[in-house]
């Protein structure tokens, strides 16, 4: 139910359970965690794209599994819900969303660092409509991503927002036509992969850690990270390529 393909330095991870709207069950959870493990372990892969088959990105938790008392299988020990929302990783992840991403689907999308969506997408946390709580990161990550008042409206009403509104709010990075989300995500991935992969990973880490740091702490951390890159091949390649007026050839080391 999870496909894993490589395209140069990019891994394309695909949720492939269209008959169930890619709802998260045990197979999806374990598969997504294993896919992130593969991405992280392979030095030739610098970035991942999370995509889907069928007209729905992800409908959230598999209610049939919950009704059958198999709630625990929806999460993994390291990754949390879907095997991904709490999974620690170093490499960027781009979501290619070509249909509704609701409840846990929105939370999985929020787990990704960048999001591309088509006009067929919708986002929302409808859990309160069933007296449930969006406990897989939505209540934390949504107000860090969009204005607090709008995040509160989405959480408290449970009403979805369109892809167009999501772009206005900064919830997604790019809007495209239906059927084009994966290609748009590939183009965005190529823009990221044009940069030094070690610097990209460190920059991603520093941005995320800055939420719990003072300005001084965050800047000191950035300085230490810069010093840590000085002994790498890519650190030498960047300035050299600039001087020689050629594109850099990154090694990821």
How would you describe what is shown here?
- By secondary structure, the chain is an alpha/beta fold.
- It has 2 domains: 2-193, 2-enoyl-CoA Hydratase, Chain A, domain 1 (Alpha-Beta Complex), CATH 3.90.226.10; 197-243.
- Helix content is 42%, strand content 17%.
- The strands form 3 sheets. The chain has a 6-stranded mixed sheet, sandwiched between helices. Strands 7-9-10 form a 3-stranded mixed sheet. The protein has a two-stranded antiparallel sheet with strand order 4-5.
- The two termini are 33 Å apart.
Shape assignment: globular
CATH topology of the largest domain: 2-enoyl-CoA Hydratase, Chain A, domain 1
| Helix-strand makeup class | alpha/beta
Determine the CATH superfamily of the largest domain. Answer: 2-enoyl-CoA Hydratase, Chain A, domain 1
Number of strands: 11
Query: What's the rounded overall pLDDT mean?
Result: 96
First-residue to last-residue Cα separation? 33 Å
Our estimate of the beta-strand percent is: 15-25%
The largest beta-sheet arranges its strands as 1-2-3-6-8-11
Helix content: 40-55%
Q: How large, in whole angstroms, is the Cα Rg? A: 19 Å
Low-confidence stretches: none
Question: How is this structure best summarized?
Answer:
This protein is an alpha/beta fold. The protein has helices at 26-41, 63-67, 104-111, 138-145, 148-157, 163-169, 181-193, 197-209, 215-229, 233-243; strands at 2-7, 10-15, 47-52, 75-76, 80-81, 93-97, 101-102, 114-118, 122-124, 161-162, 174-176.
